[in-house]
């Protein structure tokens, strides 16, 4: 799995980078995001709800993102 | 009464004996009566605060006893979080979690508990539907609701902020119920509830403001409700990847836009003549996202908070929404 290192980047950059990363990928594509921004944990969950993708919060700085079928 | 006259008439200390002081005391008493009428409390339950946020501590700590537990919620004001954190190791305060619509389930309250009740959330406008709580003491946070929502029957202490009725800032009102078992938590030598003195000109100006706000609200609440719906519908239908906090009080809206930097959004809107606030981390002094948005699961990035004042017109709202849409599109490029 690819890792996207967004440590030190502030909101909304980590989520913009995740969206760019998965844009041209097939459904089921996974990426591991590293982000220490305090807004990333709540906002990735909200982003997943809004876009249909899924997010697994591994810890407060590590998130596994899976691209959805739509 | 015009503002310069208020300053002229209310400079003397109303507790002294001179003629001027007596007329200042009359002004103070009239103001108290005005507030008592609107807030639906007794005038001798009213205390003015020059530091409105001090009212959270006075209102809550004054009700706590050694055998009472503080029960508050995760969408309460940070001032209440700070009070809960500052209690001794044996106090074990309980933080209740709001549902996704912002409602608090108070079913688990014990008879000796001191509960905090936020009538309306100042960020999202969430109104608590359960307002009669079954416990010994209730601190009511009415800082965002003002006089829109009545106090529950069994309130013990209640806090308002003058700005909620478009009065001057820097003035709070703490009511302490005559039925409450309240003890002053601050060092004190007499029975005053706040150390004081509080600015009499501010009190008089705020009393005039609450009268005029209440009169306007009767005529304008339907307009505010219609504007709220217009804004919600426009954002939902015309700005993709937007997230609105659930509809609560009509004068407040919290909207978030994915992939948008809130600091840029707020400053660009300010440049175009629109003053909005934000709950996003990048616009906060502590760089933390709004705990209220996070608790409700609402997106915290690209967030703006709107307050719909009485004087706002439909035309202004239409212009604002067009500017908002263009600005969000521009910032997403």
Can you walk me through this structure?
The complex is a heterodimer of chains A (70) and B (333). Chain A has 70 residues and is an alpha+beta fold. Chain A is built from two helices and four strands, in the order E-H-E-H-E-E. Chain A has helices spanning 13-23, 40-51, and strands at 2-5, 30-34, 54-59, 62-66. Chain B is an alpha/beta fold and 333 residues long. Chain B folds into two domains: 3-213, 3-Layer(aba) Sandwich (Aspartate Aminotransferase, domain 2), CATH 3.40.640; 220-332, Aspartate Aminotransferase, domain 1. The radius of gyration of chain B is 21 Å and the shape is globular. The relative contact order of chain B is 0.13. The A-B interface holds A 10-12, 15-16, 19, 37-39, 42-43, 45-47, 49-51 and B 241, 243, 256, 258-261, 280-282, 287-289, 293-294, 297-302.
Provide a short characterization of the protein structure.
The complex is a heterodimer of chains A (70) and B (333). With 70 residues, chain A is an alpha+beta fold. Chain A has two helices and four strands.
């Amino acid at each position: 799995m690819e890792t996207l290192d967004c440590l030190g980047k502030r909101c909304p950059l980590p989520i913009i980078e995740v969206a760019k990363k998965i844009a041209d990928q097939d459904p089921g594509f996974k990426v591991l995001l590293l982000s220490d921004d305090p807004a990333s944990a709540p906002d990735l969950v909200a982003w997943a709800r809004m876009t249909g993708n899924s997010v697994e919060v591994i810890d407060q700085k590590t998130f596994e993102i899976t691209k959805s079928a739509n | 009464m015009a503002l310069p006259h208020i300053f002229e008439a209310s400079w003397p200390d109303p507790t002294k004996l001179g003629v001027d002081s007596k007329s200042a005391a009359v002004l103070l008493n009239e103001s108290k009566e005005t507030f008592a009428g609107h807030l639906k409390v007794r005038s001798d339950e009213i205390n003015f605060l020059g530091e409105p946020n001090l009212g959270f501590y006075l209102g809550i700590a004054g009700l706590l006893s050694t055998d009472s537990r503080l029960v508050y919620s995760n969408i309460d004001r940070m001032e209440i979080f700070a009070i809960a954190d500052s209690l001794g190791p044996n106090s074990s305060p309980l933080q209740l979690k709001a549902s996704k619509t912002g409602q608090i389930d108070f079913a688990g309250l014990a008879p000796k508990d001191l509960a905090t009740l936020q009538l309306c959330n100042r960020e999202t406008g969430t109104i608590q539907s359960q307002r009669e709580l079954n416990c010994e003491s209730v601190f009511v946070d009415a800082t965002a609701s003002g006089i829109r929502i009545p106090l529950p029957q069994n309130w013990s202490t209640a806090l308002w902020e003058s700005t909620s009725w478009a009065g001057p800032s820097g003035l709070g009102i703490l009511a302490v119920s005559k039925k409450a078992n309240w003890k002053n938590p601050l060092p004190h030598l007499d029975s005053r509830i706040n150390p004081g003195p509080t600015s009499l000109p501010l009190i008089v100006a705020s009393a005039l403001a609450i009268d005029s706000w209440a009169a306007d609200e009767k005529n304008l609440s339907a307009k505010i409700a219609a504007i709220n719906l217009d804004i919600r519908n426009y954002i939902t239908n015309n700005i993709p990847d937007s997230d609105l906090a659930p509809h609560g009080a009509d004068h407040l809206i919290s909207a978030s836009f994915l992939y948008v930097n809130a600091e840029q959004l707020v400053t660009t809107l300010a440049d175009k003549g629109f003053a909005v606030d934000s709950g996003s981390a990048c616009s906060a002094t502590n760089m933390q996202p709004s705990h209220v948005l996070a608790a409700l699961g609402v997106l915290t990035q690209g967030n703006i908070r709107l307050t719909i004042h009485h004087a706002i017109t439909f035309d202004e709202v239409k212009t604002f929404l067009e500017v908002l849409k263009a600005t969000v599109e521009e910032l997403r490029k």
